[in-house]
Design a protein that fits this description.
Elements: H1 13-28, H2 37-65, E1 70-74, H3 84-91, H4 94-103, H5 108-113, H6 124-138, E2 143-148, E3 156-159, E4 165-168, E5 181-182, E6 188-192, E7 195-199, E8 202-206, E9 209-221, E10 228-238, H7 244-248, H8 252-255, H9 257-263, H10 276-301, H11 313-316, E11 317-322, H12 329-340, H13 345-353, E12 356-359, E13 370-372, H14 373-379, H15 381-401, H16 405-410, E14 421-423, H17 424-431, E15 435-437, H18 440-450, H19 452-457, E16 462-464, H20 471-477, H21 480-490, H22 512-537, E17 546-551, H23 560-576, E18 587-592, H24 600-617, E19 626-629, H25 636-645, E20 648-651, H26 663-669, E21 673-676, H27 682-689, E22 695-696, H28 701-710, H29 714-720, H30 722-732, H31 745-753, H32 763-777, H33 780-792, H34 799-811
Parallel strand pairs: 1-2, 1-11, 2-10, 11-12, 12-15, 15-16, 17-18, 17-20, 18-19, 20-21, 21-22
Antiparallel strand pairs: 3-4, 5-9, 6-9, 7-8, 9-10, 13-14
Helix pairs in contact: 1-2, 1-4, 2-3, 6-34, 10-12, 12-13, 12-15, 14-15, 21-22, 22-25, 22-33, 23-24, 23-30, 29-30
Protein name: Alpha-1,4 glucan phosphorylase
Cofactor: pyridoxal 5'-phosphate
EC number: 2.4.1.1
C-alpha cells in the first residue's frame, strides 16, 4: 500500500464557525438567526471547498508539470452520493463542522440532510466509478473523471396505489449546488450530422449542427493524501441565439427549438431507447462527453499550444473506457489526430491504441452495445468512415493471423448484411491496449465465452481487476459504530488506508466480549435504520427481527423473483399450518431497486413485491414473524443506513450472469453474511471468508450452460416442488391482486414457459439453504462470530486495491511525487 499522508486540518471549531458565518453573510445573504439548515449546508460546503482549493490547484499543476501519466476515467455514470460528509472526512474537518454547526444553533444531521443527492448514476457501474475516483485521489494518482452532468438524473422512483413504479424527474439541481464550478471559458464544441466531402485530397467533415459542452468541475479529495482530483462533467448548451423575431410572432416553440435540442443531450441518464429517436439521443450523449473530454485533455496537457506534439499524448494520459458507453471516443481521437492535427493513419493509430483501455462490465449480449451503421452515418459520418477503415485493417490483420475464416467473420467490428451494425465491445477490444473483466470468474468467462476469439488471438491484452469499494464512505461514514470498534480492536485507524489490516480482527472472533460488542453495534444500526425507515417512509420495522436485504437494479438475471417467491411460499406455509408459527424465525425482508422504464417484466416484478408486502404486512396471522418492505427511490443515502443494519445479504443471481457486484463487498465489510450463488465476486468473497461463513446454493456456470444446451423446461420444476407450485398459483389466482387473475399473467407465463434465468430450477436449493440460515441465526453468538470473520477477510475488496491493480496491470503509472 502506498504511504501517503497529509496533516490534519489545524482549523479550530471556532474558526470554522466564523467561516460558516461569513459564507452565510456573503454567499447566502442571511444571518445565522435567519438561516435555514439548507443555508448552513451551502455555507459549510462552500467553506470546505475553499479549504480544498489550494490542494486542488497544486494537484493540477503538479500533474501538468510532472512526468506521471494521468488517468482519464470515461464513464456515463458517477453515482457520487452526498458530498459534504465525505469532503469533511477527507479534509480533516469533521469534528470542527460538528462543533461549529452546534455553536450556530443547528443540528448537524439536519444540515447534512439538506443536501440533495446528485442524480448522476443508476447502480453499480456509477458507484464503482465514484469509488475509483475517490481511491485515485487517496492514492495520489492524478486523474480526471469525465462524464455528463445530467439535469434530471435517471428518474425519481415512486410507487402508486397499485404498487407500480412511477418515474418522476429527479430535480437534483433545482436548489443550489455548492460543489460544481461551471467554467464557461473552457467549453468545447461538439458537432453532429452533415456530410463528408473531398477537399484538396482530404476528407473533410461538414457538420450540420453543433452544441456547446460546458465543463462543471467537482473536487475529489483524497483521504489523508493531500491530493484533490477533478470530476469534470459536461452540460450541453446551444450555440444558436434565441430567435426573438420568431418568439415575437407568438411562435414560442419554434423560437427555442435549438436550445431544447442541445439541452436534451444532458437532460437525463439513459433515455428510453426502444425508439429510433431514443437511440439517437443515447448516441448523441455518448459522443458528446467522449469528444468534449478528449479535446479537454489535449487542452489541459498542452496549454497554449496550437500544434502540440500529440505523439506524446499516451505519456500524458490514458483513458479508461468504463463499459461500451464511451467507446465512440476511439474513432473520435482518430478523427482529431487525422483531421485536426494532420497525422497520417499509422501515426494516429499508434497514438490511439496506446491511449485507450477497456473495462467490460457485463456478459449479457444486450448490454454490449451495437449501433446501426445507418445511425452512426447519420450522426457521425466521418466517424463511420474511420470505423470502416479500422474494420478493414482489422480484417486484413486477422487474415494474416489465422486461416479460420469463420473466426475472422465472427470478429468483424462492422457486421455484414442488410442492416449492418458496429459492435462497440469489439472495437474497444481491438483498439484498446488492455481489456479487463471485474471479477475472476467474469474475466475468465470473458476470455472463454464472450470475447473468446479476441482472447485466443490477443491473450496478452486480457487481464482481471476485481472491483472494490471505498471504506471511507461505506464504513467510516456509513458505519461509525463498527469503525470505532475495529479501531479499538486493532489499536489503530490505519485500516482506512490499508484495508488488509482487517485480517488482524480474525482472532477477536473467538473473544466472546468482542463478539458481544460487535452484536451490539449491529443491533444499534438496526435501530437506526428502523428509525430512518419510519421517518422517511412510514414503515414500522421490528429491530429484533432478522434484516434480510436484497438491493440491486431490478433485472430478471438478478432474480428478485426468486426471493419474492420464497417469501410467498413461507407465507403459504404459515397460513396452511404446514409450519408452526412459533418455529418461524422473525424476518424483515427489505428490497431496494429501480427498473428501467421500458422493462415490462421488471416493473411487473416491482408491482408484485409491493402487493405481496401489502397482503403479508396486513395479515395478523403472520404479524411479528414476516414483513416485507420496499423503500422507493433507493439511493446512496438509503444504502448508508441499510447496509450497516443488514444481517443477511441476498446475492442470488443466476451463475455466470453477474459480472462482479459491489453490494456484496459492502455487506461483507459491514458484517452481513451472504447467501448466494457462485457468480461474480461471490466466488472470491467465499474463497476469502471461508466456505463455512457463506451460504452457498444453486447451479454452477457449467450446470447452467448444460441445462441450456439440453433444453430447459421450467414447468417441470413447478410440478416437482409443492411449495413452488403453491407460491406461483397464489400469484396466478390473484391472491396479491385483489382476485384479478390477469394482473400478473405475463409474469406467471414467463416463469412457466421461459424462465430464461432459471429461477424455478434453483428454487428448491434456495429454500433448503434458508433452513440452514435460520438454524444458525438461532445461535446469535455463532452468527456474529461468522460475521466478524467476514469483516476480517474482506480487506481485499477495497477500491484502493482495485486501483493499485489497474496501476500495475493496465495503466502503468503511479502517484504524483
Amino acid at each position: 500500500m502506498t504511504e501517503l499522508t497529509a496533516p490534519k486540518s489545524s482549523v479550530t471549531a471556532a474558526q470554522f464557525a466564523d467561516e460558516i458565518r461569513n459564507e452565510l453573510k456573503y454567499t447566502q445573504g442571511v444571518t445565522p438567526e435567519q438561516a435555514k439548515p439548507a443555508d448552513v449546508y451551502v455555507a459549510a460546503a462552500t467553506a470546505v471547498r475553499k479549504h480544498l482549493m489550494d490542494s486542488w490547484m497544486k494537484t493540477q499543476q503538479d500533474m501538468i508539470n510532472g512526468n506521471t501519466k494521468a488517468v482519464g476515467y470515461l464513464s456515463a455514470e458517477f453515482l457520487m452520493g452526498k458530498q459534504l460528509r465525505n469532503a469533511l472526512l477527507n479534509s480533516g474537518l469533521t469534528e470542527q463542522f460538528e462543533a461549529a454547526v452546534k455553536e450556530l444553533g443547528f443540528d448537524p444531521q439536519q444540515v447534512t440532510d439538506a443536501e440533495y443527492e446528485p442524480g448522476l448514476g443508476n447502480g453499480g457501474l456509477g458507484r464503482l466509478a465514484a469509488c475509483f475516483i475517490d481511491s485515485l485521489a487517496s492514492l495520489g494518482v492524478p486523474a480526471f473523471g469525465y462524464g455528463i452532468q445530467y439535469r434530471y438524473g435517471i428518474f425519481r422512483q415512486e410507487f402508486d396505489e397499485e404498487g407500480r413504479q412511477i418515474e418522476r424527474p429527479d430535480y437534483w439541481l433545482t436548489n443550489e449546488d455548492p460543489w460544481g464550478h461551471i467554467d464557461y471559458e473552457r467549453d468545447q464544441r461538439v458537432s453532429f450530422g452533415g456530410e463528408v466531402v473531398e477537399e484538396d485530397g482530404k476528407r473533410v467533415w461538414k457538420p450540420s449542427w453543433s452544441v456547446r459542452a460546458i465543463p462543471v468541475d467537482y473536487m475529489v479529495p483524497g483521504y489523508e493524501s493531500g491530493r484533490v482530483n477533478t470530476l469534470r462533467l459536461w452540460q450541453a448548451r446551444s450555440y444558436d441565439e434565441f430567435d426573438l423575431l420568431t418568439f415575437n410572432k407568438s411562435e414560442y416553440l419554434d423560437a427555442v427549438k435549438p436550445q431544447v435540442k442541445a439541452e436534451n443531450i444532458s437532460k437525463i441518464l439513459y433515455p428510453e431507447d426502444s425508439t429510433e429517436v431514443g437511440k439517437e439521443l443515447r448516441l448523441e450523449q455518448q459522443y458528446f462527453f467522449a469528444s468534449a473530454s478528449i479535446h479537454d485533455a489535449i487542452r489541459v496537457f498542452y496549454p497554449n499550444q496550437d500544434k502540440p506534439d500529440l505523439t506524446t499524448f499516451p505519456d500524458k494520459i490514458c483513458f479508461q473506457l468504463n463499459d461500451t458507453h464511451p467507446v465512440i471516443g476511439i474513432p473520435e481521437l482518430m478523427r482529431i489526430l487525422l483531421d485536426e492535427y494532420g497525422y497520417d493513419w499509422d501515426t494516429a493509430w499508434n497514438i490511439t491504441t496506446k491511449t485507450f483501455n477497456y473495462t467490460c462490465h457485463t456478459l449479457l449480449p444486450e448490454a454490449l452495445e451495437v449501433w446501426p451503421v445507418a445511425l452512426i452515418s447519420k450522426l457521425l459520418p466521418r466517424h463511420m468512415e474511420i470505423i470502416n477503415k479500422i474494420n478493414d485493417q482489422f480484417m486484413h490483420e486477422l487474415e494474416e493471423m489465422t486461416d479460420d475464416e469463420a473466426k475472422v467473420e465472427r470478429m468483424r467490428i462492422v457486421t455484414d448484411g442488410d442492416t449492418p451494425s458496429v459492435r462497440m465491445a469489439y472495437l474497444a477490444s481491438y483498439a484498446g491496449e488492455h481489456v479487463n473483466g471485474v471479477a475472476e470468474l467474469h474475466s475468465q468467462l470473458l476470455k472463454d465465452v464472450t470475447l473468446r476469439d479476441f482472447s485466443d488471438l490477443f491473450p496478452k491484452k486480457f487481464t482481471n481487476v476485481t472491483n472494490g469499494v471505498t471504506p471511507r464512505r461505506f464504513m467510516k461514514l456509513a458505519n461509525p459504530g463498527l469503525s470505532d470498534l475495529i479501531t479499538e480492536g486493532l489499536g489503530t485507524d490505519k485500516w482506512l488506508e490499508d484495508l488488509e489490516l482487517l485480517k488482524n480482527l480474525e482472532p477477536l472472533a473467538q473473544d466472546d466480549e468482542f463478539v458481544k460488542k460487535f452484536a451490539q453495534v449491529k443491533y444499534d444500526n438496526k435501530i437506526k435504520f428502523a428509525d430512518f425507515a419510519k421517518r422517511e417512509y412510514g414503515f414500522d420495522i421490528d429491530s429484533s427481527t432478522m434484516f434480510d436485504t436484497m438491493i440491486k437494479r431490478l433485472h430478471e438475471y438478478k432474480r428478485q423473483a426468486l426471493k419474492i417467491l420464497e417469501v410467498i411460499a413461507t407465507y403459504a406455509d404459515i397460513k396452511s399450518g404446514k409450519v408452526k408459527i412459533e418455529d418461524v424465525t422473525p424476518r424483515t425482508v427489505i428490497f431496494g431497486a429501480k427498473a428501467a422504464p421500458g422493462y415490462y417484466l421488471a416493473k411487473m416484478t416491482i408491482q408484485l413485491i409491493n402487493n405481496v408486502a401489502k397482503v403479508i404486512n396486513n395479515d395478523p396471522d403472520v404479524m411479528g414473524k414476516l414483513k416485507v418492505v420496499f423503500p422507493w427511490n433507493y439511493n446512496i443515502r438509503v444504502a448508508q443506513y441499510l447496509i450497516p443494519a443488514t444481517e443477511l445479504d441476498e446475492q442470488i443471481s443466476q451463475a455466470g450472469k453477474e459480472a462482479s457486484g459491489t453490494s456484496n463487498m459492502k455487506f461483507a465489510l459491514n458484517g452481513a453474511l451472504t447467501v448466494g450463488t457462485l457468480d461474480g465476486a461471490n466466488v472470491e468473497i467465499r474463497e476469502r471468508v471461508g466456505a463455512d461463513n457463506f451460504f452457498l446454493f444453486g447451479m454452477t456456470v457449467d450446470e447452467v450452460e448444460k441445462m441450456y444446451a439440453d433444453g430447459y423446461d421450467p414447468a417441470k420444476y413447478y410440478e416437482a416442488d409443492p411449495r413452488l407450485k403453491a407460491a406461483i398459483d397464489m400469484v396466478a389466482k390473484g391472491t396479491f391482486s385483489d382476485g384479478d387473475e390477469d394482473t400478473y399473467a405475463p409474469l406467471v407465463s414467463d416463469w412457466l414457459t421461459k424462465d430464461w434465468f432459471m429461477t424455478l430450477a434453483d428454487f428448491t436449493a434456495y429454500h433448503d439453504i434458508q433452513s440452514e440460515i435460520e438454524t444458525l441465526y438461532g445461535d446469535q453468538l455463532e452468527w456474529n462470530r461468522k460475521a466478524i470473520i467476514n469483516v476480517a477477510n474482506s480487506g481485499y475488496f477495497s477500491s484502493d486495491r482495485s486501483i493499485e491493480d489497474y496501476l500495475e496491470r493496465v495503466w502503468m503509472t503511479g502517484p504524483l511525487k
